[in-house]
Specification:
This protein is of the alpha/beta class. The protein folds into three domains: 6-129, Nucleoside Triphosphate Pyrophosphohydrolase (Alpha-Beta Complex); 141-152 and 219-344, HAD superfamily/HAD-like (Rossmann fold, 3-Layer(aba) Sandwich), CATH 3.40.50; 155-214. Helices cover 30% and strands 22% of the residues. The chain contains ten helices and 17 strands. The protein has helices at 43-55, 118-129, 155-170, 176-182, 187-194, 201-211, 223-232, 245-254, 282-290, 303-311, and strands at residues 6-12, 14-15, 18-24, 34-35, 58-59, 65-73, 82-89, 92-93, 102-108, 141-145, 152-153, 218-219, 236-240, 265-266, 295-300, 315-319, 335-336. The strands form five sheets. It has a six-stranded parallel β-sheet with strand order 14-13-10-15-16-17, sandwiched between helices. A hairpin with an 8-residue loop joins strand 6 and strand 7. The longest helix has 16 residues, at 155-170. The two termini are 45 Å apart.
Length: 346
C-alpha cells in the first residue's frame, strides 16, 4: 500500500439484486460495511470483526472469498489520500442490524449510486456490469459455462494439436482411443496421459504452449451473442473449464467476450478438485450465493460436466457439440444442438 493511503476491508453482500451498505452517524454517504484492520490483523480478520461490530451479525466462515481491491480518493481527506479497499464476498450468518455506531443500513442498486462514497461507487459499478446488482426477474439467476466444445469447437483442433506435440516433441503416436479416454480431464493430468509423461509437467506444458497458436479453437456461432444477451438481461455469467485459466482468458478475449462483465473465469490450475467432482464449483458457487444468485445452471457438453453440476446442486443443460449425443445424457437433462439455443430451456 502506498504511504499515507488508508487500508480497509469491506463486505459485498447482495440480496434480491441490491447491495448492502451502511451509514455512520453524522455522515452523508453510505459505505460498504467494514473498516480498518487493527495492528497485526489481516484484511480478512478485520472483516469478521468489523461486520460483527457494525451489523451485529457474523459471517459464515467458509463463505468468505476475495473479490478484489478498489482504490479511490478517500472521502473527507486531503486530495491525494486514497482508500485501498479489499473487498470480500460472504454470506451473513443472520439478519444484519445497525449497531450503536451505525445510523442506517440500506440495500441499494444503480439508481442509488450518488448516495455512496467514491470507492463504494467503484464497487457498485463493477457489480452492476457483472449483473450481480440488478433489478428484475433475473436478479437470482446465474449461468456458468464450460469452455471447450461449449463456447468453442475444440476437439478437432486440439486433438490435432496434441497429436503434433506428442509426435514432434516426445515421439508418441496418439490414437483416437487414447484421446477420447482422457479428453476433458484437468489439463496437466490429460497431457501426462497423452505424452506418456515423457518429461516433467513444466516441460510438457511448455511444449504444448509453443505450438498452441497453430491449432486455434473455432468459436461456436451464436455463443458470444448468447452470453451478452444473458448479461444484458440481468443474468450473471461465469466460466468453469478444465483448461488453464490464462489460456481460457486469452481465448475469450480474442473472440470479444467481455471479461470485465464475467463474474469469474476458473481454469483447472486455480482449484484442487476437477470434474466430475462437484467441489470444482465450490469457489464460484460461494461467490454467486453471497451475491444473491440462487438459481444456478451449468452448461456443458460432457457427461462429467453433467455429473459434477447435478451433484453440486445446480441445474444442467447438455450440448451436442462435443463427444456426446442426446441419448448419452440423463433422461431428465435438457439437451440442445448448441449453446445458441439456450433460451429454449432457460
Amino acid at each position: 500500500m502506498a504511504s499515507g493511503n488508508i487500508a480497509k476491508s469491506a463486505l459485498i453482500s447482495i440480496r434480491d439484486g441490491k447491495l448492502l451498505v451502511a451509514r455512520s452517524f453524522g455522515k452523508e454517504k453510505f459505505f460498504l460495511p467494514g473498516g480498518k484492520p487493527d495492528a497485526g490483523e489481516t484484511a480478512k480478520e478485520a472483516l469478521y470483526r468489523e461486520i460483527r461490530e457494525e451489523l451485529s451479525v457474523g459471517l459464515h466462515a467458509n463463505s468468505v472469498r476475495s473479490w478484489g481491491t478498489f482504490t479511490q480518493q478517500a472521502d473527507g481527506k486531503a486530495a491525494g489520500v486514497q482508500v485501498e479497499m479489499a473487498c470480500f464476498t460472504a454470506e451473513l450468518d443472520g439478519e444484519p442490524a445497525p449497531s450503536e455506531e451505525i445510523e442506517e443500513i440500506a440495500w441499494v442498486d444503480a439508481s442509488d449510486r450518488e448516495k455512496l462514497s467514491a470507492v463504494a461507487q467503484l464497487v457498485l459499478d463493477d457489480l452492476v456490469q457483472k449483473s450481480l446488482v440488478v433489478s428484475g426477474a433475473n436478479s437470482h439467476r446465474a449461468v456458468i459455462f464450460d469452455l471447450d466444445d461449449t463456447l468453442f469447437f475444440t476437439i478437432e483442433a486440439k486433438w490435432n494439436h496434441h497429436r503434433h506435440v506428442a509426435r514432434e516433441s516426445f515421439g508418441v503416436e496418439l490414437t483416437d482411443d487414447v484421446l477420447r479416454e482422457h479428453w476433458g480431464k484437468p489439463f496437466t493430468e490429460m497431457i501426462g496421459f497423452y505424452y506418456q509423461n515423457a518429461a516433467s509437467v513444466e516441460e510438457m506444458v511448455a511444449a504444448n504452449a509453443a505450438s498452441r497458436d497453430l491449432f486455434p479453437k473455432k468459436p461456436i456461432e451464436g455463443a458470444r451473442e448468447m452470453v451478452l444477451s444473458l448479461l444484458d438481461d440481468g443474468v450473471a455469467v461465469g466460466v468453469v473449464t478444465s483448461t488453464r485459466t490464462e489460456w481460457a482468458l486469452g481465448e475469450l478475449e480474442r473472440e470479444g467476450y467481455p471479461l470485465n462483465r464475467l463474474t469469474m473465469v476458473q481454469g483447472s490450475d486455480l482449484v484442487d478438485f476437477h470434474k466430475p467432482d462437484p467441489r470444482v464449483f465450490d469457489e464460484i458457487l460461494k461467490i454467486m450465493r453471497a451475491c444473491g444468485k440462487t438459481s444456478l445452471t451449468y452448461v456443458g457438453d460432457a457427461l462429467l460436466d453433467e455429473r459434477a453440476a447435478l451433484d453440486a446442486g445446480m441445474k444442467f443443460v447438455g450440448l451436442e457439440t462435443g463427444l456426446y449425443s442426446h441419448a448419452d445424457f440423463s433422461e431428465n437433462t435438457p439437451v440442445l444442438p448448441d449453446v445458441s439455443h439456450l433460451r429454449d430451456v432457460l
